[in-house]
Amino acid sequence: MDERDARRVSLRGWGGVAAMAAAVACALVAVFTVLLPLSHTASGDGSTGVGPGGVADGVQARADDCAPGRKGHEPERSLDPKGDQNGDAVKAIKARGYLSVGVDQNSYRWGYRDPNKGLEKTASQDDRASELEGFDIDLAHEIAGEILGDPDAIRFHAIPTNQRIPAIKSGQVDMVVRTMTISCDRLADVAFSTAYFQTGQQVLAPRASDITGYDKSLAHQRICTAKGSTAETALGDGRDQDDIPRSTDITTTVPNQLDCLVRLQLGEVDAVVTDGALAASQAAQDPTVQLKGEPFTTEYYGVAMRKGSDDLVRRVNQVLEDYRRGGKGSGWQKSYDKWLAADLGPSSGPPAPKYQ
Question: Which site from 34, 154, 185, 335 is most exposed, i.e. has the minimal number of CB atoms within 10 Å?
């Protein structure tokens, strides 16, 4: 038995953890598919970011204006909220009476449904939707409350990682609040709010693993990432630039990031690369895994909206201004303390907004 086989035996020795994780993930998918099915567009671009569809050129930083290495490379800059906040996009939402938001359903602490809550109920779909919880869910409720006067005037759509941009482009959702990294590439397809959270890519592996982080210890290791994620891009670039060994196997990609944790538990991969904030929540779920090394990128989460919905972008940026200070709802810090502090430690606060 070689070292890798021994590790597989060890991983399978987690007992029912892997099987349970897979079962829970499947159960959540099934429940949410019933909740609010989101049809997949055949023309999906596989991007994991935020996706709107069609903004006027020059309204928000364009991909070619914020290329790495150029002065002012700050894709997190967004529209100043002092502009018009009551244009066609906001008026349409108010006329409809609810906000349509794409979210995650299985990211612990961010957007998920606690399997210990409410499963015994024969609740309506709307009742089940209200059981979604987490840091991103709090923010979505805050936005609905500020635009419509009712934080519960919202319909959630569970979206796989690789369907976030297509969901916005097709108009199936008004926005996506789903741990989405703002990037130059994604600005070609979508509009972003200002940043509401800072994180970075990090390696997650079994505690017993010899992997030490984003370094030469990844040689001959099998790494899992979500399809279209910034993690997938970073790994490909890193291997091409010899930041990690060329023998690193980065061919395993999955539609949803949580699927990587399940594959890790089953011994099908040796490590996961994802946002450190998400990885920390997964380590909290499974004490046999841990973060390895330091983050090797700096990234910012933003709310994604359709390009061209400038009034909505400005309105969300105003909500974020209030939310950072405490807002009319729970406030950024209160939400952080409730959902993330236990895993990420004390926070110095949200990133300051940057405007164009």
Answer: 34
Q: Using 50, 70 and 90 to split pLDDT, how confident is the model at 49?
A: very low
What is the rounded distance in angstroms from the CA atom of residue 208 to the CA atom of residue 277? 21
Judging by beta carbons within 10 Å of its beta carbon (0-12, 13-18, 19+), is residue 116 exposed, middle or buried?
exposed
Location of structure tokens 């990587």: 260
Residue 310 to residue 316: CA distance in whole angstroms: 10
Query: CB neighbours (10 Å) of residue 264?
Result: 27
Q: What number is the average pLDDT over the span 235-257?
A: 95
Helix H or strand E segment including 31: helix 17-35
Exposed, middle or buried: residue 341 (CB in 10 Å: 0-12, 13-18, 19+)?
A: middle
Confirm if 61 and 192 have CB atoms less than 8 A apart: no
Three-state DSSP state, 201: strand
Distance (Å, rounded) from C-alpha 348 to C-alpha 341? 11
Is the model's pLDDT at 188 over the cut of 50? Answer: yes
- pLDDT, residue 115, reads 74
Q: What is the rounded distance in angstroms from the CA atom of residue 306 to the CA atom of residue 102? A: 12
Sheet of strand 222-226, all strands in order from the earlier edge strand to the far edge = 249-254, 222-226, 271-275, 201-206, 289-292
Average pLDDT, the chain: 81
User: How many CB atoms are closer than 10 A to CB 105?
Assistant: 24
Q: Which residues, in sequence order, are CB contacts of 185 under 8 Å at separation 6+? A: 47, 49, 63, 233
Judge whether 135 and 110 are in contact, CB under 8 Å.
yes
pLDDT band at 330 (very low <50, low <70, confident <90, very high): low
Residue 16 scores a pLDDT above 60: no
How does DSSP classify residue 36? S
How many Cβ atoms from other residues are within 10 Å of residue 92's Cβ?
Answer: 12
Which of 37 and 296 is assigned the larger pLDDT? 296
